[in-house]
């Protein structure tokens, strides 16, 4: 694979992952209100999740809805440009946002990609099952061999 390209040109990125207790779809500005509610209700939960060791996210000062929307637009643009893939984690029962998944080029040269995920505090029991499902999904549906899962 070309080291300047995150995914091969002939690769079609998956746009969903469905399990009994959650489903993923690409994150976009349409998720703004529910995404903002999910992460602002779960700052401590997120900061205790593997992969968020530096405490810089979520931002301690929070975000305005406009700033959060801009962040979601950036993630959607990255997805469209194939530079990174961010998914919202939805509750299949009611469609509410219960978490997020980020797949981006790895910062560590020993890896090709890195993945981080979080679930809101009210769904903390899904953290492990989500991480396990993501590991299987990455191995089966994505093009990388060396993914940094931040100790998961």
Automatic annotation (TrEMBL):
Q: Where is this region: Disordered?
A: 48-67
* InterPro entries named in the record: Acyl_CoA_acyltransferase, GNAT_dom
Q: Name one Pfam family in it.
A: Acetyltransf_3
Which stretches make up the N-acetyltransferase domain? 21-143
- Please give the superkingdom of this protein's source: Bacteria
Q: Where are the transmembrane segments?
A: none
Task: From the Swiss-Prot or TrEMBL record, give the protein name.
Answer: N-acetyltransferase domain-containing protein
State the organism named in the record.
Brachybacterium conglomeratum
